[in-house]
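Anyone able to model this chain together with iron/sulfur cluster?
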Amino acid sequence: MIPTPIKKIVFIEPKSPGFHVYSRWGLPRLGTLMLGTILKQAGYEVKVFVEDIKGINFEDVFEADAVGISTITSTAPRAYEIARQVRKEGIPVFMGGAHVTFMDEEALEYCDYVLRGEAEETIMPLIKAIETGAGLENVRGLSYLGNDGKIIRNEDVEKCTDLDKYPTPDFSLIQGNVKGVSDKAITPVMTSRGCPFGCTFCTVTRIFGRSYRYRSVGNVIDELQRLKPKWTFFYDDNFAANRAHTKELLREMIRLNIKTRWSAQVRVDVTKDTELMELMKKSGCYFLYIGLESTNPKALEAMNKSQTVEEIESAIKIIHRYGIRIHGMFIFGTDQDNITSIRRTAKFAKRLKIESVQFMVLTPLPGTPVFNDMEREGRLLSRDWSYYDAHHVVFQPKGMSTWELHKETAKAMLRFYSWGQIIGRFLKFDLWTMIIRAYGRRFIMKSKRTSRDFGNQLKQMYKQAGDSVHDAGAKIQFRARRTSDDIRESLAKINWERIRRTKAERLKGGKTHG
Ligand code: B12
Ligand code: SF4
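re: yes, here you go
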């Protein structure tokens, strides 16, 4: 391995393949920011491009001495194309995140290194190994190719139990940080990692583990006091998994009069603790994101969700009693689902007056039991990961055809975000919900247009299959989703001469780090 001097590192979080319900807010994941902050503190020049916030400046990217790319499954194809273009220029490319953690071999076709799992402990050792040209074998969690072209997987990294030792993310690293982060609309703050549950569709426990780790109350409060967010989005997957700790945090927010409206992801069981609910309300909780998933008891059981339909209904009523709004997330398409159960669930959401919902198609994400089962059973219809965005049917369902699952999910969304539902909220003077629902409707209409081609393919197959509707999907040949044409267009405009000059001058100008 040849030593490579490194001064400038660029991170990229590629954009989603399509429009999604949260697109408007341009929220970053914290991974590239955490790693960027660690490297900045070690003296490197760091830039982070979160494409959902601002497009990539490729001149900046090609001027870098190393490039790190983050992935979730739906953004993997675009991430790979960026990696391929950057590696072609001889710049070391390393990748990480929820997709490549489980698909390292696939990723190594496009990049040089994959850091599996959490990477705060492993990023510096990797950068040092690239700089010195030695020591890759000691970087935990690293996957790379040996001289014989075979994959080498170093031992997994241990999960850090002292989250306080990590820096808080430096939002100024994000290029074009104009909305949605830090001092602006919504500030992401993560107080914990991991989740004690084990839902079969979720990658969280596979990356962050089932043991729940959290930052100390003081550490989180410091961050809130420094950032003074108007709106805080606690990024935790299960914000109140340790209720005693959550209560302590909320009490401290109240005592110190931290004025922020906040939202978080919780489970329905928070409502069993009255004191917790009161503290949540008092400390500024405005909106709760809840994985309600289904009103089909068999589906809930199959997902290993550890919650009942009765608990879901009671939780919604209690949360509403506290005047807190709900974003209900549902999953359609488990082996236990059929058209009737989908329609029942959609009606339930309307009947209980949930403020906003997301009816998502079950998505077999690599690393999860759902993925492993479907792969084993030969039910995956496509490996074009850009379709794995919870809006497309990528597997063969059991209780209906692919077309029926696609159609029923779209219909459920349309019914929930109907004009009647929007106007109903206006008449109740609930402007906030009205706006959210109007936005939801816009999202549906937009995604309806963009997924028309996909829907037509499913419909055609369904019709051709005649009576054997349940086999209809098996014959689908998905057309590749075009997620990176614009990259090639951007590259055509690049001033390579200027990049080479700037880079050579920078590397001449001083020692590298380490
Ligand atoms: C906040 C959040 C969102 C936000 C912002 C998302 C965004 N910009 O992508 C919103 C609400 C918009 C959202 C939407 C969606 N999300 Co989301 N989201 C999260 C959540 C809760 C936190 C993300 C975060 O900041 N984590 C904390 C940081 C520290 O972790 P991290 O970014 O993964 O980084 C660490 C490692 O992965 C690694 N790493 C990451 N990147 C890199 C890069 C390099 C170079 C290296 C070396 C290492 C590395 O090191 C980091 C530090 O340890 C995660 C769950 C989770 N706990 O991560 C789900 C999660 C990322 N979301 C997920 C999904 C599926 C979605 C949606 C498709 C579904 C939906 N609900 O509509 C959409 C799609 C969004 C999109 N970009 O297209 C899945 C992704 C799984 C997968 N394999 O694809 C996750 C993991 C949750 C789950 N249930 O499994 N999401
Ligand atoms: S879906 Fe929620 S409760 Fe289930 S394992 Fe994932 S984070 Fe935990």
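The longest strand covers residues 285-293.
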